[in-house]
Amino acid sequence: MDRGSPRNVWKNVRDIPLAALLAALTAAGAWVAVPLPFSPVPITLQSLFPLLSGLFLGTRLAVLAMVAYLLLGVVGIPVFAGGAAGWGQLAGPTGGFLLGFVVCAAVASGARHHKSPWAQGAWLVGATLALYTIGVPWLAVQAHLSFGQALVAGMLPFIPGDLLKVVVALALSRAARHVQVGG
């Protein structure tokens, strides 16, 4: 079936509320913020939702959901960690992680093409690594840290929680396969 068929258009329209929900959940995930005394990057639930966006929406809508989340924050709605908002958050030490949500969601969408939970998990771990790949160097530059210091401040303490988020995203995705909404 080609991409422009009425059936695919309907599916995309039907997924827009889910994209909005995942953008909103990303914002809600910022409310659960645990500051670390040695890092400007708090522990949050936010990084779970780009993974879920990729799993549930596919590349285009997952990216759209994360861009919508960022735009909400840029226009002044307090959706970033600690109730922060504005362009300054994107330019600051955590801005690379915020922008990285877009790439994380896009990479996570690759998991949709696999049935094996191991293959899906590998894609989600890759998506998390993409987030670190953008966030850690940005943190180093913006916070005037060496790369090693940025790894300690922006990646190492987050690995266990991020692996747990991969497991949760996989579990939710697999459970959703067994739920049929509508008639």
What are the key terms here?
single chain; 183 residues; mainly alpha; Arp2/3 complex 21 kDa subunit ARPC3; two-stranded antiparallel ribbon; 8 helices; globular
Based on the coordinates given, report the CATH architecture: Orthogonal Bundle
Question: What percent of the residues sit in helical stretches (DSSP H or I)?
Answer: 55-70%
Report the sheet-strand fraction.
under 5%
Classified by CATH, the class is Mainly Alpha
Secondary structural class: mainly alpha
Q: In what order do the strands lie side by side in the largest sheet?
A: 1-2
Mean pLDDT: 92
Q: Could you list the spans in which at least 5 consecutive residues all have pLDDT below 50?
A: 1-6
Summarize the helices and strands and which ones pair or pack.
Blueprint: H1 6-31, E1 34-36, E2 39-43, H2 48-57, H3 59-74, H4 87-91, H5 95-108, H6 117-142, H7 147-154, H8 159-176
Antiparallel strand pairs: 1-2
Helix pairs in contact: 1-2, 1-3, 2-3, 2-5, 2-8, 3-5, 5-6, 6-7, 6-8
